[in-house]
Amino acid sequence: MPVAATPRLPDFAWGVATSAFQIEGATVEDGRGPSVWDTYTGTPGKIRDGHTAATACDHYHRYSEDIALMRDLGIDVYRFSIGWPRVRPGGTGPANGAGLDFYERLVDGLLDAGITPMATLYHWDLPQPLEDAGGWLDRDTPHRLAEYAAICAERLGDRVRHWITLNEPFEHMALGYALGQHAPGHTLLLDALPVAHHQLLGHGLATSALRAAGAPHVMLTNSYTPAVPFTGNENDLTAAEVYDVLHRRLFTDPVLLGRYPDLSALGLESLPFVKDGDLEAIAQPLDGLGVNYYNPTRVAAAPSESPLPFEIVEFDHVKTTDFDWPVIPSGLTQTLVELTEDYGTALPPLWVTENGCSYSVEPAADGSIPDQDRIDYLAAHVKAVDNAIAQGADVRGYLVWSLLDNFEWAEGYHQCFGLVHVDSETQDRTPKASFDWYREHIVQSRRP
Q: I want to staple 226 with a disulfide (CB 3.0 to 4.6 A). Which of 74, 169, 275, 296 is the partner?
């Protein structure tokens, strides 16, 4: 189907995204050490049906096959993450040369295929020894991230131009440290806030390390979700504002403005874990801001006995994905436009570094996988990006989550986000109808 003319820049980049723990497998090969996710998946009852990522998509052994799929797809950029436990198994100490060799092979294969690599340093797989020492609650961990960034840049920096320091620090704090739904499984509620600061400090120190190694393009990727009040009453409006502060501004203001937002609505008048010089370290100039968007969040005032001043409620009469996430493409337009308006000249160019949906569709009799719901979702969200650009947002790229059906954290293999189906028994890859749609969309978008 023809693509309507849009104000996208001529070099607008199309791509896909993955993460190391979710696709690589090979969790005990080449000197790779254990991560918090290895420990978490090995704990009974944590992962649906006891699934593990020991094999995942076997990308470690099949990366050439996956690069061939990406070449066929016609993408410009591939966002992947480097496994910290594979590169520096103990979190400290010497680098693991065999682990770096793997990423060198991957990067070289991508470049040979004409695909730009975009490397994320941290996608939640903290080496277990660092967690044993306190994890992101410990102020030393940001410095370990910076050291790891320098190791990666020294080996790959001559070929990798695009770097992302962190993926979704809000989710990692909220699900991993506040609510216990992800690794490492802590249930600290608002006492998890030092995790936010230490991740952002790690971002700043890693950015400096990457700059010192000559990295020309450094980003941070946050998740963003418009906070929609449940009703128009004052309490719900306030609850939505507080949620926006916690989810969006807490992880954006320090990076772009060099200060934290007012957190008094959360009962916090000061942040004692913020030390002199921290905000200067965090607020390093960036070349882009990554936006991961899946859906808005509907927020209501919490009951009086709740430890948080808000609660999440479902949208009414809205189509949902298999994850029960509401499908509201206009929220992506809203996200991109509000970032543009709220941060003004402090905002670097935007990249949609993740957007996608979970739909499970079994192969038809002829072997095809007609995932029309995913096609509809992607088409609507690409249009949402175009709408944001038309309203002044400077968006440089759009990356689909994900290339492959993969290990979806606590859901195991029950949530399928991939453009490509992966058979869990044979590891055979089968492109879905959405793969063909995205390939054709990319071709059409490049035509005058």
A: 296
Give me the number of domains the chain comprises.
1
Q: Which residues are annotated as a binding site?
A: 22, 123, 167, 294, 401, 408-409
Q: What is the phi/psi pair of residue 90, to 5°?
A: -90, 0
For 78-90, what is each residue's pLDDT tens digit?
999 999 999 999 9
- Supply the pTM of this predicted model: 0.97
Any domain includes 240: yes
Q: For 69, how many CA atoms within 13 A lie in the half-sphere containing its CB?
A: 25
Query: Is 32 domain-assigned?
Result: yes
* Average pLDDT score over the chain: 97
- Asked if the structure places residue 7 within a domain, the reply is no
CATH number of the domain at 222, please: 3.20.20.80
Q: Catalytic amino acids?
A: 168, 354
| Residue 351, domain extent | 13-445
Which pairs from 109-112 meet CB under 8 Å and 24+ separation? 109/63, 109/64, 109/67, 110/67, 110/70, 110/78, 111/159
The list of the chain residues with pLDDT below 50 reads 1-5
Which pLDDT score is estimated for 10?
Answer: 87
